[in-house]
Amino acid sequence: MPDVQPLVSDFVLKLKRRKVEGSHAVARQTAELLRSVVSQHRMGSSANQAAALADAVRAVGEQLIAANPIELAVGNIVRRVLHIIKEEDISSTAVGIEGLSVTVDSDDEYDREDDDRPSLSAAVLAAHARNALRAPSLQTLLEDIPVSPAISRTASSTGDSDGKSKSAGDKTSTRKLKHDVIAAIGDLIDEIDSCYEPISEQAVELIHQNEVILTLGRSRTVKEFLYAAKEKKRSFRVFVAEGAPRYQGHVLAKELVEKGVQTTVITDSAVFAMISRVNMVIVGAHAVMANGGVIAPVGMNMVALAAQRHAVPFVVVAGSHKLCPLYPHNPEVLLNELKSPSDLLDFGEFSDCMNFSTQDGSPLLNVVNPTFDYVPPKLVSLFVTDTGGHSPSYMYRLIAEYYSADDLVVRRKSTA
Amino acid sequence: MSQKKSRSRGGGGAAAAGDDHEDLARPPPLQAVLLADSFTLKFRPITLERPKVLLPLVHMPMIEYTLTWLESAGVDEAFVFCCAHSNQVKEYLEKSGWAGRAGAGSMAVTAVESHDAISAGDALRVIFERGLIHGDFVLISGDTISNMSLKDALREHMDRKKKDPLAVMTMIIKHSKPSVLTHQTRLGTDEIVMAIDPETKELLYYEDRADNSNLYVTIDKDILSNNPTLQLHNDMEDCYIDICSPEVLSLFTDNFDYQHLRRHFVKGLLVDDIMGYKIYTHELRSGYAARIDNFRSYDTVSKDIIQRWTYPMVPDVISNRNCSESRLHRQAIYKASDVTLSHSAQIGANSVVGSATSIGDHCRILNSVIGEGCTIGKNVVINGSYVWDNVVIEDGCQVSNSLVSDGVHLRAGAIVEPGCVLSFNVEVGKNALVLAHSKVSLLPQPSNEDSDEELEYADTNSGVTDSPPFSSMRSNGDQATVPSEEDESGTSETGTCGVVGYIWTSGDAGILEEWRQSIAPISKEKLEELQHAVSENDGSEDESNNPTLPDKDDSSDSAVEDDDLISKFEKEVEETFQRAMGGGVNRDNLILEINGLRLAYSLQHADCAGAVFYSVMKSALQAAQSTNDSLLKTTAEALGKWKDLLRNYTKTVDEEMEILLKFEEMCQETTKEFSPLFSKILPFLYDTEVISEDAILRWAEEKEHADESDKVFVKQSEAFIQWLKEAEEEDDEEE
């Protein structure tokens, strides 16, 4: 793994110096880095290949998470990759059971499932194993029925190649595991890149003719969402709260006007005054926590409270990479980042207020510039993710589909 | 690895032509010169043992901030110039992973070592000799904290250079509140006055005023005639970050007497119009930049960091060592996760506590930074202080507004007063008191300090040998249990009891200047004094508050500056005179001294006469009792005693007039005690031949046309003048 170390430390530095920010960019780059970690990982001859690979990922993931604990997307992606490794491992061992009758320890539950379909390919098995890992849900009930006959054609060929001999099979199976994991991470990257599409597809169903939408700051997901509605010839108006102190709302307003959307820019403090005229609030998120709470740009809690007061639906749009399997504890402080006060005040103008030598050494002027707000789940009406719309109380189920429960704490086994 | 890289680059640039083509194709790598030596003594005694750039600033060595910034500003290659303690700096660079790091996107750091450099000028000459710099470079010292973006400034610099190859330097400046106080109270530095062309941003004039009482700036009239518009700024802070062309280095080599970057180089360049090199400024709009020049700026910048002005260079975001992450809590309290904190201990706002530190019951920590691995006992109060790593503070200690270095041990009940600096491994005994503004070190103060030697640290072997007597009372910690009450009496031996280490006397700055650059907050009185100085500068004198200064001529604004100069001069003359009275200085020497002062203030002979007269009268007044008779007597005595001195200055009628006018002024304004005696003293002056009759008559003549109020004394002495006139007529008649 020494080859990736410079890459890793480079990315760690970038995260530390806050050079990479925003959950989308962070998620993408983390996934790419982990893909190269996996591809550079030298498979040993030890029995438990997957565990070794997972350990390597964990070791890197630990550093990345520590580099910027606020960017929850880093942890999300690391956990997703760990989950992928587990899935692929199960599917490849399942193939092993079928072709070589190698005894591999795996959970009884999965064995049972594997026995039912002995001739399926690794890909299909992976899908099954995923289902097995997921708790049964309405979506997964129907998922595999149309898929399995389509792929079963390829099943025989892969099954054959795997079953040449025991030693060769061992080698190919490890290579295959790695290959599959890399491919799956590639899928994950594609998913992150294209997460806007499935979300914005739902726009027409949510935004109706002549509605008034309110949003705060700028989120790319929200932008794509509104674009999609506009493209479908919906006519609606948008109120954009400017999102002090970063004023990303100004940027969004410009972009919306370019697309021909009726846009009104308001100050953050005018949100309550305007909310009675609004039909729906649509906002982006920094992260969605396991309890359905949202970490979002500062000012969002106020918007959510205003929306609740006037019974306006509060809709959060977020890609699945923003789903965080952690429960928020003291999120206002611990899941927040205080930025430089220079966003708020000009240092030169206020330099005389920061005269520490004139009082007893304690500054009279303090400036607090938090980045995020925590919106409790009860204020959120609907989450729109790439898998559809969900209520806050459903988030933990959704999260269970993407992550394994034992990866919640990303830490190397040896140190733990 | 980076060293190799830089060397190969250096060789290529000098010789190979192939390199040049490459350079044309893509921009040359941005280089930076980081001076890891401040070439001053301001952080002594700590800097005797550790270089300034490695001193921890909120848990991180200063150089770490500078290097981090350079890297994030897009610098490709940095040369760290180290001089004193170069081994420590190099070791740090190795250990922290700066040196020898390679790869795309990361900055190569190379240490450049030279032991005989004693100034920034020398350092740059060494850099030039080694041929390390090939293009434009960022010049910064290792104690500068910034998070600004260099992009705009760099682009401006490059554009300008394309148009005008003589634009060799871009100075980064920052707006600050236009108050004289701010410079002093924030960073402990002097006010800077700059003249900038508002159109081109060219720097036309630069002056860091050492003295706030200087109320004027002198600008060459060529500057005014050559530039139709110019803005005079006193609201700018110099960030000490410069973008320089390679010519700067050769300029330093050409002018081998350039030592100081600002004092010599910038001023030299501005004055020199033969070569026509120009310096431009770039005003920092957003972002933070400050240089740590002294202990006060150390304090201020630390607090700015804690208040997150330097984001992302804040304690919870960057940490160089592999220690546990420190987290930010409400009210700007940063705590490492493995701090052992007693339930009853109280940590106030704006504090930082490092990892593996334990804090006992009922402690109070306010506005302070506590390092790593410290052990703090019970009932300790730490206020506004900087406690570095592995410090042991026992029960009941009090530390306020001080700096406590690594390994210091404060035994139970010790009190550290504001403004102290305890250097490495100093021990303070039980119940001992460390007096305000004292600097304590295990190393004795070097005695051979030359004022013009600007080494950051004299090497520790020389200068240690004969330590002055005050520092010789090294006492053992065991016997150092002298009650602290005694200590308060003085700065001499008793004050140092209970301290293992040498207590340094204040340097050449003098004890009066201590408060300017220490961590301790400025006392109310000093602030008022400063404030007063400021308000005086504004021209709004408050007479009732300031009785000691002679009143100023309200009628003419232009005289205000002049008056101030004279009053200062008078004060000095008076002091000299009083010394002469007390110590019996030879009269000739006194004259010499006063003449020297006159030259220093570039004043007229007449002013001198007035001042001396003023001093004589003042001395008489002090000696006198309250009654008029005794005053007259002492005045007569004084005049008799000093008549020779006065006569020395009254060579012409003009000077005699000056004395008369001065006397009149005194009677009217400052020392009204003399006013009833005017007419009685005047004949005496005549008798002692200090003032001739010509002068008196001319004075009377001049006053004839003056206001009624001015004529009071003329009237008072009418009889005498009449007598003089008659005497003159008689003389005429006789002839």
Automatic annotation (TrEMBL), chain A:
Component of the translation initiation factor 2B (eIF2B) complex which is a heterodecamer of two sets of five different subunits: alpha, beta, gamma, delta and epsilon. Subunits alpha, beta and delta comprise a regulatory subcomplex and subunits epsilon and gamma comprise a catalytic subcomplex. Within the complex, the hexameric regulatory complex resides at the center, with the two heterodimeric catalytic subcomplexes bound on opposite sides. The keyword Protein biosynthesis applies. It comes from the Eukaryota. Keywords: Cytoplasm, Initiation factor, Protein biosynthesis. Belongs to the eIF-2B alpha/beta/delta subunits family. Residues 161-172 have a biased composition (Basic and acidic residues). One of its GO terms (molecular function) is guanyl-nucleotide exchange factor activity. One of its GO terms (cellular component) is eukaryotic translation initiation factor 2B complex. It comes from Digitaria exilis. InterPro entries: eIF2B_beta_subunit, IF-2B-related, IF_2B-like_C, NagB/RpiA_transferase-like. This is Translation initiation factor eIF2B subunit beta. It is found in: Cytoplasm, Cytosol. Residues 152-172 are annotated as: Disordered.
Automatic annotation (TrEMBL), chain B:
Signal peptide: none annotated. Residues 1-25, 443-498, 531-561 are annotated as: Disordered. Keywords: Cytoplasm. Residues 563-734 form the W2 domain. It is found in: Cytoplasm, Cytosol. CDD domains: eIF-2B_epsilon_N, LbH_eIF2B_epsilon, W2_eIF2B_epsilon. The keyword Cytoplasm applies. GO terms for cellular component: cytosol; eukaryotic translation initiation factor 2B complex. GO terms for molecular function: guanyl-nucleotide exchange factor activity; translation initiation factor activity; translation initiation factor binding. Its main location: cytoplasm. SUPFAM superfamilies: ARM repeat (SSF48371), Nucleotide-diphospho-sugar transferases (SSF53448). PROSITE patterns: W2. Pfam families: LbH_EIF2B, NTP_transferase, W2. The keyword Cytoplasm applies. Residues 459-482 have a biased composition (Polar residues). Belongs to the eIF-2B gamma/epsilon subunits family. Component of the translation initiation factor 2B (eIF2B) complex which is a heterodecamer of two sets of five different subunits: alpha, beta, gamma, delta and epsilon. Subunits alpha, beta and delta comprise a regulatory subcomplex and subunits epsilon and gamma comprise a catalytic subcomplex. Within the complex, the hexameric regulatory complex resides at the center, with the two heterodimeric catalytic subcomplexes bound on opposite sides. This is Translation initiation factor eIF2B subunit epsilon.
